[in-house]
Design brief:
The protein has 7 helices and 23 strands.
């Protein structure tokens, strides 16, 4: 049987075309198939805003994903690009602040240890039917401007939803294009697709009141704790009945199509962000030049004949020369390769009222990350600055009385909580015992909206 839309030959027993997914036994419903789409320009009859083929070969990311509930620590399915998920165990919502980062890691084959997300990516290039598991050809539905439709499975006829990637996701991942499959509720909320969901319970369920044995009619919309109409007692519905009316949500496969690599490229960075990075680089260059000039002037001052003659006139031989070098360093005012200046203060939860003045600094290279560790006068790490390539710049402050031996608990935060978040960690040209010396500053003015606590800091450091 030849498809009237794309011209592909199909088996007589097939109901749907393997090429475009169109119904072989019904008249054209006006949805475009492969045959309707020329290489460029508009699809016939679609008018302005018609769907157009992608200019580059698309990539696909097919995943099943869950996230740990931030209230009860139970896994909650993430069945599509959503901003928050609802936990059926504790009836609380968990926001998905870093879903876009997890999608990038999944597309590159990585899983972060300790992450609240758990994902499984698949090698299948095309989305799969949610009912029979067969591949659903979607080449004819990939459009640059997106389509919000349901695609029939060629094998069983089940409908696979597809809709454009949400705008909030495309702001984080500009290369994201189209979503296929996933939870019907996500498709309804994001694209307005009303899908028929198969339900095990067709009508109300009847149970007896444990107080008066009266007949109670239970429907899916009945609250978990209901009032008996005969005796007025509150009846808590048992788990078995509640789960029958509200089946536990299962993880579903969903697919995200994208151009090039899913991760954000330099060319996609917001112009204001590029300008901020340029200004930061210019400030770093000016600071470096000023520092080099100050060091050159200090060296010239130390090398004046009067001061050198004073040292050499000690007549102490080799010991006198060593003492002279020490005095020169002291006169120049050098601090060595590891120091910290300034104070960090906190008020309110989650850190309490603290005033931290680090006196020493160590490079994060010692523990395998790019950043620094600021230490107090007892040698304990009180502040961590981590320049993470995926999550961005993070600052961690040690909680008071949280150390158990060498293990301490830190409160980590980033620029989202801080109107002022000026952090710099730069490599120098100095290496000590194979550790690159770094220097920088930490200037913070942060407020935790959930707890009302604050963090303020003005620190400079140099670390080996």
């Amino acid at each position: 049987m030849k498809c009237s839309k794309c011209g592909r030959e199909n088996n007589e027993a097939y109901r749907f075309c393997l090429g475009c997914g169109g119904d072989l036994h019904e008249e054209d419903e006006g949805l475009p198939g492969l045959g309707d789409l020329p290489g460029t320009g508009e699809a016939p009859g679609m008018g302005d805003g018609a769907w157009r083929p992608l200019l580059e070969k698309p990539g696909f990311l097919t995943v099943t994903m869950s996230v740990r509930c931030e209230h009860c620590a139970q896994p909650v399915p993430v069945n599509g690009p959503v901003r928050r998920v609802h936990c059926a165990n504790c009836e609380e919502d968990t926001p998905l602040y870093r879903l876009h980062e997890e999608l990038v890691l999944a597309s590159e084959g990585y899983q972060t240890l300790g992450s609240p997300y758990t994902h499984q990516s698949y090698n299948e290039a095309e989305p799969q039917c949610p009912r029979c598991g067969e591949g659903v050809p979607v080449g004819g539905w990939l459009r640059k401007e997106g389509a919000s439709v349901t695609i029939p499975c060629p094998a069983c006829g089940a409908r696979l939803p597809t809709y454009p990637a949400p705008e909030w996701l495309k702001k984080k991942l500009p290369n994201a294009r189209q979503v296929f499959g996933g939870d019907p509720e996500v498709a309804r909320d994001e694209a307005g697709l009303d899908l028929q969901v198969e339900a095990d319970v067709a009508g109300p369920v009847v149970m007896s009141c444990p107080q008066c044995s009266g007949s109670l009619s239970i429907k899916p919309e009945t609250p978990r704790t209901m009032t008996c109409g005969f005796c007025g007692v509150s009846v808590f519905l048992p788990d078995a009945l509640w789960l029958r009316l509200h089946p536990a949500r299962k993880m579903r496969r969903w697919t995200l199509s994208f151009e090039r690599a899913l991760g954000q490229k330099p060319g996609d960075v917001d112009p204001s962000e590029l300008e901020r990075l340029r200004e930061k680089g210019e400030r770093s260059r000016e600071n470096r030049e000023a520092r080099l000039q100050a060091e050159a002037e200090a060296g010239a001052e130390a090398a004046k004949p009067g001061r050198a003659g004073l040292f050499l006139g000690l007549g102490l031989g080799a010991s006198g020369l060593i003492a002279a070098v020490v005095v020169v360093v002291m006169l120049v005012g050098g601090k060595g390769c590891s120091w910290s200046e300034g104070t960090l203060t906190t008020t309110g939860p989650p850190l309490g009222d603290l005033s931290i003045t680090p006196v020493k600094c160590k490079s994060g290279q010692r523990e395998g990350f790019h950043g620094v560790m600021l230490l107090d006068d007892q040698g304990k790490v009180v502040i961590r600055v981590v320049m993470d390539p995926v999550r961005g710049t993070l600052v961690g402050v040690q909680k008071k009385d949280s150390c158990r031996g060498s293990q301490c608990e830190y409160v980590m935060f980033d620029r989202r909580e801080c109107p002022r978040f000026d952090v710099a960690v730069e490599n120098t040209n100095t290496t000590v015992n194979d550790i690159r010396v770094v220097e920088g500053h930490l200037k913070l003015d942060c407020a935790f909206k959930d707890t009302g606590g604050t963090v303020k800091a003005d620190l400079k450091f140099k670390c080996d």
